[in-house]
Amino acid sequence: MNEEFSALLIDWYEQNARSLPWRGHSDPYAIWVSEIMLQQTRVDTVIPYFLKWMERFPTVDALAAAPEDSVLKAWEGLGYYSRARSMHKAARLLARDHGSRLPGEFKTLASLPGIGPYTAAAIASIAFGLDHAVVDGNVKRVLARLLPYTNAVNTPSAEKELRGIAQCLLPAGRAGDYNQAVMELGALICLPRNPKCAACPVSSQCAAFKDNRQAELPVMKEKAVVPHITVTAGILHQDGKVLIARRPTNGLL
Ligand code: SF4
After folding, report:
1. pLDDT tens string 19-47
2. 54: part of which helix (H) or strand (E)?
3. 228 contact partners, CB below 8 Å, separation of at least 6
4. Is 68 a residue of the active site?
5. Which residue has better confidence, 225 or 52?
6. Reduced to 3 states, what is the DSSP secondary structure of residue 21?
7. What is the pTM for the complete model shown?
8. How far is the CA of 10 from the centre of ligand 1 (A)?
9. Structural contact between residues 206 and 197, judged by C-beta atoms closer than 8 angstroms
10. Would you give the DSSP letter of residue 111?
11. What element of type H or E holds 176?
């Protein structure tokens, strides 16, 4: 299905992609910022943060030179602050060791703080045109339905297997558009519940659609139960002042 599938998908993407402030950017730094912000956070929430961030820290050097407090302030409200801390740390490494540029090489990207295989593949493909497939929750869902892939998708072995499959489906030289197209399909059409198959550009290629199994896929292995922890909290105040302590960088809550 490779060539027809990717051609249908990219055609659809070119006509239906949402206009987002980081799209059309060829600046690897802007793509990196957007990818980090989009981890765990909705597109609508990210847009104003991204625009303000790019004004406040328009380059790797600007971010590297900023004090941590101002970086965390600019991140305030986005949550998962370790993302901002890692990006700040990575910017300082880039300024020190890489001429303040993101390296156009998957392995070096993936060695930077806060950049895992997904983000490294996204930056490598979108910013540098390198043939690396992205695999995140959206992509796993799309692949599980298309193939079909009937093992649980949220296991390390499935991650590896799906990464290999995604890499095989990638049209050489079009990785940036293709990756964004699969993610866009997962975000707009191949939704977790009630996928919009009637509007799907690749329904002719989709095994789940053919067999009416969309609701069964992807299969998810049940996650371990989140432990419940009881804690006691106190508030110290004196003469109208309240004691506030900064939380440690690591650890719970
Ligand atoms: Fe997803 Fe439906 Fe398209 Fe298959 S046909 S990829 S289930 S939206």
Report:
1. 999 997 779 999 999 999 999 899 999 99
2. helix 43-56
3. none
4. no
5. 52
6. coil
7. 0.90
8. 15
9. yes
10. T
11. helix 175-188
The pLDDT value recorded for residue 24 is: 74
φ, ψ for residue 238, nearest 5 deg: -155, 135
Dihedral angle of Cα 247, 251, 252, 253, to the nearest 10 degrees: 20
Q: Which residue has the tokens 């929750």?
A: 137
DSSP E strand stretches across the chain = 237-238, 241-242
CA–CA distance, 173 with 165 (Å, rounded to integer): 17
Structure tokens at 146: 């298309």
Closest by CA position to 177, among listed 185, 187, 168: 185
Q: How many CA atoms lie within 13 A of 47 on its CB side?
A: 7
Contact 12, 203 (CB under 8 A): no
Q: Which of 159, 177, 165, 187 is nearest to 8 (CA)?
A: 177
Residues with a CB atom less than 6 Å from ligand 1: 142, 145-146, 189-190, 195, 197, 200, 202-203, 206, 208-209, 214
